[in-house]
Design goal:
Blueprint lengths: L1 H7 L4 E4 L6 H17 L3 E5 L2 H7 L3 E4 L6 H8 L4 E6 L15 E4 L5 H13 L6 E4 L4 H4 L6 E3 L4
């Protein structure tokens, strides 16, 4: 139901919060939403479950802290897969330069001002990866911000 509501409200990318689910639960959940995502041209990513993504052939995976290394995931899923990862305020930003990832999300404890500083630091180090903040923001909060998007559970 939440996926249908999100799509009805114009959402074009669904990230299923599967990092606390086992492989069987994740596969069942993903299989229940893949048809509606495909029929509406919606990007679908799962959290951490690389083998499930590989089996079901959805768009990609979002790696939570402490999960698989992005290089292994890229090798496993191939160049077409979307790979994102979540970083926290203690993450070494310079290490992003050598990672083959498509976007990063910032943990909810990183506020908009800090997120903007991280984007500036990345730019000064020649790192051009889209940055998504996690939390409950309104559009006006990010209109003039260098962040690329918002990850939220509020529709």
């Amino acid at each position: 139901k939440a996926v249908e509501t999100a799509i009805a409200n114009g959402i074009k990318w669904i990230q299923l919060p599967t990092h606390t689910l086992d492989d069987i639960e994740t596969k069942a959940l993903a299989e229940s939403v893949i048809p509606i995502c495909r029929s509406n041209d919606i990007i679908l990513t799962l959290e951490n479950h690389v083998e499930t993504v590989n089996t079901l052939r959805n768009h990609g995976v979002h790696l939570m802290p402490g999960s698989m290394h992005p290089a292994f995931v890229r090798e496993r899923l191939g160049p077409h897969a979307i790979i994102g990862m979540q970083i926290d305020k203690d993450f070494d930003i310079s290490s992003l330069k050598n990672l083959d990832i498509d976007y990063i999300t910032l943990t909810p404890d990183i506020n908009l001002h800090s997120a903007e500083n991280i984007v500036d630091l990345m730019a000064s180090n020649g790192i051009q990866i889209p940055v998504v903040i996690e939390g409950h923001y309104i559009t006006d909060d990010i209109v003039n911000s260098p962040v690329s998007g918002i990850l939220t559970d509020r529709i």
